Amino acid sequence: MSIPRNLLSLAAAATLTVAAAACGSSADEPGTSDGAKIKVVAAFYPLQEAVERVGGDRITVIGLTPPGGGPHDLELTPKNVESIEGADAVVYLAKGFQPAVEDAVAGLDDGTVTLDVLDGVDLLPVEDGLEGTNGEVDGEELEGGFDPHIWVDPALQADIATEVAAMLGKLDPENAEAYESAAGEYRAEMAALGEEFTTGLTECESRTIVTSHRAFAYLAEAYDLNQIAIAGISPDDEPDPKSLEAVAAAAEAEGVSVIFFESAVPKDLSETVANEIGATTDFLDPVETIATEDLDAGVDYAAVQRKNLDSLTKGLRCG
């Protein structure tokens, strides 16, 4: 029995459609070889930006820390845990930075790739608060007494992107070159940003930054600055007179005319401290807590860091 010509045409068309679908997931198109996007969970903003920039539209990124929220204080919701368990990869900081995330990662099976961006980094020890000041120093600390804020150095932020590219390349070998290329572009941007810092901070009357948040040691190390963290200045604790006296003495000795605060410290408190020691105030952002409205407006890591650079060049009287 002969098959009608119209049925043969339909069968041929169907065969071509299936073949096209099978070939449609190439290295030039989003996703892995089977067309699915890689699901990556990033613990907080700087890691999330690196993942997004390297992965592009081949991946789906879920940030665990809400915009504007502090990563160290993160408590996982059931939805967060579900996202981690359903992810192809998790990018995070270990050594006690976010214990809840570490606990969730420890419970994952071997099918999920995990990337601790602290691996291989020459970590700096946490610096003590300014001698003579009382109370706790505002700032997180890793197990062993190390500083977690590696991302505030643009070069180390670039290294995070490189690690992410290697991770994604293993998950999706067909697009490995694309991930490497994207990481290279991001590294170039971070290198340019680093050059801006080097140029802007070359000639300064002071090289000491007095901060209320102990988050800028890696930035200081990269650009030959000295960070002095003030104990007892936080959103909840006003420094005592003895501490203010110690800060004033250090500011005078180091030629410091500006005290840098994180935005979480109430403005009236920061101004009170500055007035007591005869200084002015400005803000430095540890690039952890970009708010939703700022992200929607296009603010990113580089934009925050350039604002930090502007504050530093003014505060240290550079130029």
Could you characterize what this model shows?
Helix content is 44%, strand content 11%. The longest helix is centred in the middle third of the chain and has 25 residues, at 176-200. The strands form two sheets. It has a four-stranded parallel beta sheet with strand order 2-1-3-4, with helices on both faces. It has a four-stranded parallel beta sheet with strand order 6-5-7-8, sandwiched between helices. The chain has eleven helices and eight strands. It has 319 residues and is α/β, with parallel strands linked by helices. It starts with a helix and ends with a helix. Mean pLDDT is 85; it is low at 1-31. It is globular. It has two domains: 27-125 and 149-196, Nitrogenase molybdenum iron protein domain (Rossmann fold, 3-Layer(aba) Sandwich); 202-315, Nitrogenase molybdenum iron protein domain (Rossmann fold), CATH 3.40.50.1980. β5, α7 (217-222) and β6 form a beta-alpha-beta unit.
